[in-house]
Amino acid sequence: QVQLVESGGGLVQAGGSLRLSCAASGRTFSRHAMGWFRQAPGKEREFVAAIKWSGSRTNYADPVKGRFTISRDNAKNTVYLQMNSLKPEDTAVYYCAARSPYYSDAETSPTEYDFWGQGTQVTVSS
Fold first, then answer.
1. CA-based nearest residue to 79, from 69, 89, 87, 92
2. CA dihedral for 87, 96, 112, 58, sign (positive or negative)
3. Is residue 84 within 8 Å of 17, Cβ to Cβ?
4. pLDDT at 113 (0 to 100)
């Protein structure tokens, strides 16, 4: 089991930046691929970014490419999402997720992820 706790959300003006963190419990964090997803009111949960267990590969949704960066620090059991040039349409609850299989790749479908955090709200004002 992996328990995940997100932090770093908040209110920011358009064009600003935020860095989300996701702290994981347990000794197996370094073996899990990690992902970030978001859900806006009235919309389905959507993929944002993912990183392979080794950190050697990342994957991004088209709307965030070039603006968001996912990274991980296995020594700290933490995955990050650096968000720059934020837009009002980035407003959502952001969720961190982990894939159960060890040594897995950076998948984009939420159905590939087995453990989820509680979410952190990001609001971008225009």
1. 69
2. positive
3. yes
4. 96
∠37-43-47 over CA atoms, to 5°? 20
**Any idea of the CA torsion for 40, 49, 116, 87, to the nearest 10 degrees?**
-30
Position 14 pLDDT exceeds 90: yes
Q: Tell me the C-alpha distance between 3 and 62, whole Å.
A: 28
pLDDT tens for residues 75-96? 999 999 999 999 999 999 999 9
Task: Tell me which amino acid residue 55 is.
Answer: G
Please tell me what DSSP assigns to residue 119: -
* Cα separation, 33 vs 29, whole angstroms: 8
Closest CA to 2 of 34, 36, 26: 26
